[in-house]
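Form 7-S
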Amino acid sequence: MNETIELMMKHRSVRKFKPDPVSEEQLAAIVAAGQMASSSSSVQAYTVIAVTEQEQKAKLAELAGNQSYVNECPVFLVWCADLYRLSDAAKRHLPEKESYEDSTENFMVATIDVALASQNAALAAESLGFGIVYIGGLRNRIEEVSEVLGLPDGVYPVYGMCIGVADQETGLRPRLPLDAVLHHGRYNAEQTLKGVESYDETTAAYMKERTQGERATPWSELMAKRLTEPTRLQMKPFLEGKGFLKR
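Output:
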């Protein structure tokens, strides 16, 4: 392995931060690194909103499910899928033609662009000695989050990201075994399910150690519970109301 892969293999989510600031120069470098991620046809369909004002962070922490680390981290980035500027470009240059910014394909392109850019930024932040954690809880009350951030139609908050100097030591959460994820030539369903069996043993042991013996729930049981409970069903009508997923 090289230094880059070693850094990636050490990733962990950080939920407690020191008050040390993230400088404007560091923030600019982190986001600029995010911008160098691949983007479909160079559409670059994302926007990053850096939140540092304490009252605004506290409000977003509340909307994300009272996650205190959103309030405590020195800078909170909100990663948004953004088709607003693309829609404007179509109106300016080809006003006589119908625009398809509301298509499912363009929704996917924008959301994928966010994921690629934000992961680049996460690695850049970790290379500078910071810790990060993604905050999907922003989608709990997504309409209110959008109002707080002043998001126009064609823009939606995909998730947040806390950045700061870690003030905790956390273990590395085990991942699925490689042969459950890496297939050659064709999808191997039997190989996938065997990998899950092995992973269940690993995750049960991990949870038992992490909770001092209180829980030893295997991964597949956690996923079964997750899939059988309705979560954020407001997303589809919200996205449609913002001009996404209309065709």
